[in-house]
Amino acid sequence: MKSYRKELWFELKTRRGFVNITHELERCVKESGIKEGLLLCNAMHITASVFINDDEAGLHQDFENWLEKLAPEKPYSQYHHNGFEDNADAHLKRTIMGREVVVAITDGKLDLGPWEQIFYGEFDGKRKKRVLVKIIGE
Ligand code: ZN
Question: What's the pTM?
Fold first, then answer.
């Protein structure tokens, strides 16, 4: 069995945002030389997510609005976690949007559904953060 590991770095200029990382992960699969196996991709920070959904701007705005209703950023004082930090909402948003995705690799390619795209979700940006890519298989 072959194994491959890589870290991808991000630094968003905004507090929140979504980045389509599908092509970068496809490059990782190619680099790994693995034809049949599994790719795991997880955020290595507890205020960021990796998730699969549609690459459609309206939907991304809907996610932003929905997450702000569930866990509004402000007022910061509404959260017990805030004090030294102001990112309680980001921890909650990350929990809803998920930590990781696992995708099958078939014939050297990500075996995604027709509209499935993989995203990095940032909820407390303006600093360097990373995701782990681990691929195993033959
Ligand atoms: Zn925190």
Answer: 0.96
Q: How far is the CA of 26 from the centre of ligand 1 (A)?
A: 32
Distance CA 86, CA 89 (A): 8
Supply angle C-alpha 135, 137, 138, rounded to 5: 135
Of residues 29, 54, 22, the one with CA closest to residue 120: 22
Domains of the chain, start order: 2-137 (2.60.120.460)
- Angstrom distance (rounded) from CA 116 to CA 80: 36
Query: What is the Å distance from ligand 1's center to 72 Cα?
Result: 15
pLDDT (tens digit, 9 = 90+) per residue, 35-58? 999 999 999 999 999 999 999 999
